[in-house]
């Protein structure tokens, strides 16, 4: 079984070299599936993330005006809140992601969880900050991830904090 650090390195490279048209095709198919799903239709407030250039391209959802869209904001002690998405009130963190200037925390009813690799049953490797596992520890709403085909692995080592996402959207 591959160690998490090894998986991170390998997946970052695979994402950065992912063929442009295959990426576009998979992105569109996955978002189409999501938009007709019950979990999308039943959610009022959806947490998306501000993607780095190589991450899953969620731009289409950020601009969805039929839902309240919130995005992650990291705080000291590896804590995280979600704040309203306002494209005119963002700043760039040292990690390279955009976050809201606002500190007003909103609890979403659906969280789209970012990451680098997943198993079919929702176990995940992220960037190693533990932000999502900490948040999900006392979150009772829905969770889902969008996954390109090569990001699915047969097994991932687990620690006691790992919380699987409840829905995987893939091609
Ligand atoms: N687009 C996007 N936003 C996201 C996440 C994500 O995966 N994708 N996150 C998912 O969790 C959170 C940020 N995750 C982070 C994970 C690790 C480190 C980290 O290791 N930082 C180093 C210094 C920065 C560096 O590595 O260059 C450190 O704190 O020492 C920071 C943020 C919230 N926002
Ligand atoms: N609920 C929690 N309480 C305390 N520590 C936690 C919790 N969740 C995760 N951690 C710690 O955070 C660190 C990172 O966890 P892990 O390697 O699973 O990150 P990840 O899932 O890749 O990152 P992320 O959740 O940010 O996407 C680990 O040291 C882990 O023990």
TrEMBL record:
Q: MF terms per GO, please?
A: 5-formyltetrahydrofolate cyclo-ligase activity; ATP binding; metal ion binding
* Pfam families xrefs: 5-FTHF_cyc-lig
Q: Does the keyword Lipid biosynthesis apply?
A: no
Q: What class of enzyme is it?
A: ligase
Keyword annotations for this protein, in alphabetical order, are:
ATP-binding, Ligase, Magnesium, Metal-binding, Nucleotide-binding
User: EC number(s) per UniProt?
Assistant: 6.3.3.2
Q: Does the keyword Transport apply?
A: no
InterPro entries to which the protein is assigned, alphabetical: FTHF_cligase (IPR002698), FTHF_cligase-like_sf (IPR024185), NagB/RpiA_transferase-like (IPR037171)
For this entry, list what GO says about its biological process: folic acid-containing compound biosynthetic process; tetrahydrofolate interconversion
Substrates-to-products reaction catalysed: (6S)-5-formyl-5,6,7,8-tetrahydrofolate + ATP = (6R)-5,10-methenyltetrahydrofolate + ADP + phosphate
Query: Where would you find the membrane-spanning parts of this chain?
Result: none
List cofactor names only.
Answer: Mg(2+)
Q: Which family does it belong to?
A: Belongs to the 5-formyltetrahydrofolate cyclo-ligase family.
**Which NCBIfam families does the entry mention?**
MTHFS_bact
Protein name per Swiss-Prot or TrEMBL? 5-formyltetrahydrofolate cyclo-ligase
| Protein's organism | Pseudolactococcus raffinolactis
């Amino acid at each position: 079984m591959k160690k998490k650090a090894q998986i991170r390195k390998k997946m970052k490279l695979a994402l950065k070299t992912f063929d442009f048209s295959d990426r576009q095709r998979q992105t569109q198919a996955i978002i189409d599936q999501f938009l007709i799903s019950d979990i999308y239709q039943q959610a009022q407030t959806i947490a998306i993330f501000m993607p780095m250039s190589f991450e899953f391209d969620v731009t289409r959802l950020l601009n969805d005006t039929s839902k309240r869209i919130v995005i992650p904001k990291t705080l000291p002690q590896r804590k995280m809140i979600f704040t309203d998405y306002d494209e005119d009130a963002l700043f760039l963190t040292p990690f390279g992601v955009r976050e809201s200037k606002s500190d007003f925390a909103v609890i979403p009813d659906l969280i789209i969880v970012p990451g680098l690799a997943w198993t079919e049953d929702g176990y995940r490797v992220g960037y190693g900050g533990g932000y999502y596992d900490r948040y999900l520890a006392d979150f009772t709403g829905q969770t889902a991830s969008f996954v390109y085909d090569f990001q699915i692995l047969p097994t991932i080592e687990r620690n006691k904090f790992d919380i699987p996402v409840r829905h995987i959207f893939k091609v």
